[in-house]
Design a protein that fits this description.
Order of helices and strands: EHEEHEE
Largest sheet: 5 strands, antiparallel
Radius of gyration: 12 Å
Shape: globular
Structural class: alpha+beta
Distance between the termini: 32 Å
Oligomer: single chain
Helix content: 10-25%
Strand content: 25-35%
Amino acid sequence: RGLRSERGAIVAKVSDRVSQDLGIRTGDLIIQINRTPVADAQETARVLEYYIGRGPIRMFFERGGAIYHTDFRIR
């Protein structure tokens, strides 16, 4: 997949709406949410749940060896 990061959560499936709104694609590797590194899917879900309704979220993800980020809120 061309990923350099050893830890994170692979995006297995994403809706068209979320993909368009956030720029996330199937196969991306989520590596950090705000200032919290994530090691796997369970940790990613736990961190996202923590931030529901708490303000902006910046999620960092890797695609093809490059790091990107997207900003959003969960209400």
